[in-house]
Every structure is written in structure tokens, then in C-alpha cells.
Amino acid sequence: xxxxxxxxxxxxxxxxxxxxxxxxxxxxxxxxxxxxxxxxxxxxxxxxxxxxxxxxxxxxxxxxxxxxxxxxxxxxxxxxxxxxxxxxxxxxxxxxxxxxxxxxxxxxxxxxxxxxxxxxxxxxxxxxxxxxxxxxxxxxxxxxxxxxxxxxxxxxxxxxxxxxxxxxxxxxxxxxxxxxxxxxxxxxxxxxxxxxxxxxxxxxxx
Length: 206
Prior knowledge:
By secondary structure, the protein is of the alpha+beta class.
């Protein structure tokens, strides 16, 4: 459980929050002691919440260590489309890039938005972010499939593989009602991605 501490120093107040593994200084927006996840959390050992404490949450100071745009993109691609075709992975990655561009946000911020991606913070995402993917003889090929996701996430540029798509869903779960409604009134339309039958992709019509 977090404890909130206010300490009087001189004529001002230093506002500190003890968050399990570290002290967070809200005045400066940083940890007072080193990031408990060390360099795995990025080169800045005192940065907290990707410098977005009002929109991101890290209760224990040990959230997945995807702190740069490339790793966030690779790991959400791995988490959402692991084991699917190259075309599917490339389109998933491009739809994430498109959404980041269209919303004027970073990829990490888009990926971490609540309720947007089923793969965010799941086991595959965490293993990818924390560099824990290993191939097991006769078992899961985590490392190989993670490397596939990295290759596909870096392939091409946004819109090359998924048109202007910014949303997608797994065909196994059917089209969400809110997307059906937007398609019906013309606010969204489907984007066909040849070579990818696992997912359906959609663009927002402007």
C-alpha cells in the first residue's frame, strides 16, 4: 500500500509519496532514489511514469520496462499478434503507429491507454519488455517469435501495411458493438489487409 508523506522544509513543502520500492517527489516528477528496475527501465534512473504521472500508473515502481517508442511498439505487436503472419504483425504495428500520429501522442502513451489493447501488461508483453523471452527446446519459442515481432514492427512506415487503420480486433471475438455502430453511421470503415485473416482493421473516416 502506498503512503503519502508531507515534509516541511524551510519555507516550502516537499511532497513525497512512498510507493513500495521508492520515494516519488511530485514537485520534480521523479524518484528520489534510483529506479528499482535499474537500467532495464531506461537510461534515466530517476524518471517515473514515463514523465506522465497523471495518465500512467506504476503502483510498485516495477511496471514493464518498455520505456522507448521502439520497445513499446515491438512488445505490443508481440503481445497482440504473436505467432501470426508477417502481414498481420506489420499491420498491427502500423495501426498503432497511425493512432499515435493521429492523436499526436507517443507510441508508449497510446499503448498504455486504459482498455485499448488486450495485450498490454499481459504475460507476453511483460516478458518482452523485461527481456525475458527465451526459447525452450520442444516448448515455447518466445525469443524467436519476439524477434519476428521486432522485425515486423520495424518493417516499412505507418500506413504502408494497414492503410489508415487505427483500430483492429481479433476475428475470433467478432466485431465490437461500438465499431459496428460507427460503421453503420459512416464514421468508420474496414481496411482490407491482404494476407492477414486473423484480424480486422478499421479507419476513422474524417
